[in-house]
Amino acid sequence: MVRKFSKFPKKPLDLVGPAAPLSERKQIFLPDFTIALIRTPFLPPRYASFYVPLNFNKLDIRDYLQRVYGVGVLAVRSFVEQQPVTREKSLGRFGYGPWRRPISKKRMTVEMTEPFVWPEPPKEMDKWEKDQYFKAAKYQEEMRDSRSPEAMTKPPTQERESYAEEAKKILSGEKPWRPTWQALGLNYDRSALRKPQQGSRSSRS
Which partner from 12, 22, 120, 155 sits 20 to 30 angstroms from 179, CA to CA? Predict the structure, then answer.
């Protein structure tokens, strides 16, 4: 028996190609926007606030919550938050540029049919490296401030604090004082640089 080798696999009988009519193809709809739920402890349990795109309207948020999460909405209030004027560059880049106003944010507050209570925040944040996040944010802020045009007019506070700590250690006796050449490990104990003694001069004479 001779086997027939097929270079290309056979297509299944129920395969629908991309050229098929739209009604015969399986359609999958995914959202192309981002919605952020805001923690609002000052609102009643039946109210929730979201940051939505600027082109989002009240019917969109109502339909989104009903179809995706099954949450019924009774009323919706929306307003646009205008951002303050700044000189920082967009997209988180370092440096300063011309005066500009960042893009505004749209906020919607909905009244739901069922109450929603925020879960209590976790007490231990070691799993999410919260300390590293704040350290990185502080470092980025310091780097941005050091590269600003006003950085040259400000005193070097970090260097001043380090010098003050070193001076306190030396005055308290915790750290011994050494000349700079000894701290750097230099050796100036050379015979050629020594001053001749008086006895050696008299013996030579």
Answer: 155
